[in-house]
Amino acid sequence: MWRGLLIFFTAFALRAAALDQKDVEYDKVNGQSLLLDLHVPDGRGPFPAAILIHGGGFDEGSKSTNPRPLMQPLADAKFAWFSMDYRLAPAAHLKEGFEDVQSAIRWLKTNAARYRVNPAKIVLIGESAGGFLVNYTGTHLTAETRVAAIVDMYGPSDYEKLSLERRDHPERFNMTSINRHFANGGGIRYFGADSLDEAGRAMLSAISPINAVKKGMPPFLVIHGTKDDQVTYDQSPAFCDALKKAGNVCDLITVEGGGHGMSSWKAPEMQHWKPEMIAWLKKTLKRQ
Q1: Which residues, at least 6 apart from 181, have a Cβ–Cβ distance to it below 8 Å?
Q2: Which residues of the chain have pLDDT under 50?
Q3: What distance in Å separates the CA atoms of residue 146 and residue 284, rounded to the nearest whole number?
Q4: Between the N and C ends of the chain, which has fewer C-beta atoms within 10 Å?
Q5: pTM of this prediction?
Q6: Strands across the sheet with 149-153, in order?
Q7: Are 19 and 111 in contact (CB under 8 A)?
């Protein structure tokens, strides 16, 4: 009897223990494994969960580096998180990146019980290029890939406008980084545009999330630094305004003096975004 009880409680404890795994396959495309890292808090759950999508100009970046500042705040707040890699330029374009985000959402919903996740409380959090991908995904959701909320961290929403600003006012931008991404098939080339001629501008306008906003989208939180030299700050309030005008929920957290990338927000007065993001997520998910 006691041996049976010991086995039961040991199994229960194992099921309730915190879980950290690296390089878990969430999909395989043409022989290429698509991988993610994950953390599940201790406890029975089910937990709210965040899918993290890294930046890097669509040709660089990693699931284990770029989103790192998000991981501890989410874990401390008893969120499970799943940080995904996706196919990158020059081999991949927007179609593939979008498919990978959708695949990760479907995989997590399918495996929700295994990872003690509440499938009704899955959120997307993307930064920079990953911010664009969550914005694009949020404007192109299906019933199968519906999520509870989206957090966009300094992601472009109007790529045509941003590209024209970079061309006309290069002194305002880190053009070394922007040109490096372009040379490697990132930037506007990720969307199939090689120049800002009429065809290129039309293509960038067509893929811009701000032009696909409609009623019935999930709540959005937008986080952006005012001194961003790769994605201008005004992209975020403009996107938020468009979301609200269409009848959606959108809130904005401004990091005064913040540059491009949350890892650069080191000053104590810039750290407010972390508790504010967690508070917003908890409030928003409580309504779901």
Answers
A1: 56, 57, 58, 59, 60, 89, 187
A2: 1-2, 4-14
A3: 15
A4: N
A5: 0.93
A6: 19-29, 32-40, 80-84, 47-53, 117-127, 149-153, 220-225, 250-255
A7: no
